[in-house]
Amino acid sequence: MTRTGDTVLDLSTCDAVFLSFDEPNADRHYARVLELLPDAKRIHGVEGFDAAHRQAGELAVSDHVITIDADNLLIDDQFFTGTFDVSPRDRGAVFSFSARNVLNALEYGNGGVKIWPRETLVTLRSHENAQRREAAVDFCWTTPYFQVNRVLSEVHMTASPFQAFRGGFREGVKFNLADGILAYEAWPDLSKNEALFQHVGAANFERLRVWCSVGLDSPNGDWAILGARLGCAMTALEDFDHIHVADYGWIETFWQQDICPKWSNAKARRDKIRELGARLNEELALEIADLDADASRFIKSTYRPRRAFGRTMTV
Predict the structure, then answer these.
(1) Per residue in 232-249, pLDDT tens?
(2) What pTM, to 2 d.p., does this model score?
(3) Are 276 and 191 in contact (CB under 8 A)?
(4) For the chain, which residues make up each domain, given as ranges?
């Protein structure tokens, strides 16, 4: 059992599962997990978000399960030996802890440590197994979910050009949605800029702009910015089916056939980034910036991320 009372989870009794697929930094990050959680289990190479998380639930035996994504480096030494207060009515919710992305200094639930009811993991229907289109890109729009602002980890998602591009592309697509619905479908009578801001809200609108602007000081950071700008442009301005971002095979094929051959040259890549930025500014009024490495470094040293609070959906 993982509970010590009606409102408290004893985290030391929760099973922890590390989820990796092809991340170049996975082994190093797993070694860090084992320093804090010596009994942590690992699932590797399972294709699909839903399939991997379902397997995590099947591997665990505790009522609540901690999951850690492979691009996460744990930085909080104290959290996992403590307790976590949960009201009885929310024991069925997923708790997502903030992670600090070293690429752009954003802090939110993307890639962060999560605490799941085991029953939710083994019955999850999202991403590649979604029964509702709203769950095809993220589980958080169809599952009771809380954002917790405590930062437990850093996200390192630029260890290779492909990892960087994939991470940026996914977020560029995702920040065109709220509740799993595209802004331009939810608000067809508004301009695309107005629809986007109205639909995703000020915090996610800001995060989209940061993804599209900041990070050139990081290794492979230009690949992440290219991915974010391209994902946003394809989703907002072209007839792109956004649920492709949940398909590991589609992303890899897209990378190998369309992205890497065209923009492996650094100058061609930077030219494409600027071209996409000009288009997004003109057609979506994003007001994103072409920052050099020094400017990105300065932004990250001074930026204070917005915070999210509470339950993000109910069922």
Answers:
(1) 999 999 989 988 988 889
(2) 0.91
(3) no
(4) 8-157, 161-302
